[in-house]
């Protein structure tokens, strides 16, 4: 059971940060995951009055407030045009619209949950997080850090030229994913992200350079590169077993989804 001693709807991030320095305090997101745990919270900190629930499109980036709901991301025309619908695809399977109208991007990213479709998708883009104390940090760096008492204000997606696709495997439509996969060309740099391993999403380092120059490969070369890298990913991505799938099944999914993802990216025109 979740027990809250006091509730504060703050008037500034500075106030929220000060209150959050107590270990028993907690910043509230959409409350869809937090409420399922057993925890005593001395001070629940609500950021909903700070106007951090919008998606701003600037000339060179999207600035997504931490209280923006997943459904707002799912239906944002500009963000989905930029990603070719990949953002919508990464969100549409998460429980249902009512749930996605509550869950927030800030809670999803700051939580660094192992089952997170959101984390997998944003790692596949040129994404940064804007922290109150630490400032802007690349998401690739933030995801490996230990949780602290800082506050995530917004998520920034740079408008670096992008080709990206998102795939996931689920046992049922609205269940947690068995495995997630995102493949992207950020500029000319290939990036592959595997999540729900069932651990936290990770970038697959292409140490053998299999995908190097993928954007310039011929139509005949791309499928072979996708197949070769899929085998490499299955061998190098650590996966495990849980109630949804075995380690062996996840290894197989890693290879299949990685191949499909890169074949999709290879067929994109823009």
TrEMBL record:
<protein>
    <submittedName>
        <fullName>CO/xanthine dehydrogenase FAD-binding subunit</fullName>
    </submittedName>
</protein>
<dbReference type="InterPro" id="IPR016166">
    <property type="entry name" value="FAD-bd_PCMH"/>
</dbReference>
<dbReference type="InterPro" id="IPR002346">
    <property type="entry name" value="Mopterin_DH_FAD-bd"/>
</dbReference>
<keyword id="KW-0560">Oxidoreductase</keyword>
<dbReference type="Pfam" id="PF03450">
    <property type="entry name" value="CO_deh_flav_C"/>
</dbReference>
<keyword id="KW-0285">Flavoprotein</keyword>
<dbReference type="InterPro" id="IPR036683">
    <property type="entry name" value="CO_DH_flav_C_dom_sf"/>
</dbReference>
<dbReference type="Pfam" id="PF00941">
    <property type="entry name" value="FAD_binding_5"/>
</dbReference>
<dbReference type="InterPro" id="IPR016169">
    <property type="entry name" value="FAD-bd_PCMH_sub2"/>
</dbReference>
<dbReference type="InterPro" id="IPR051312">
    <property type="entry name" value="Diverse_Substr_Oxidored"/>
</dbReference>
<feature type="domain" description="FAD-binding PCMH-type">
    <location>
        <begin position="1"/>
        <end position="162"/>
    </location>
</feature>
<dbReference type="InterPro" id="IPR005107">
    <property type="entry name" value="CO_DH_flav_C"/>
</dbReference>
<dbReference type="InterPro" id="IPR036318">
    <property type="entry name" value="FAD-bd_PCMH-like_sf"/>
</dbReference>
<keyword id="KW-0274">FAD</keyword>
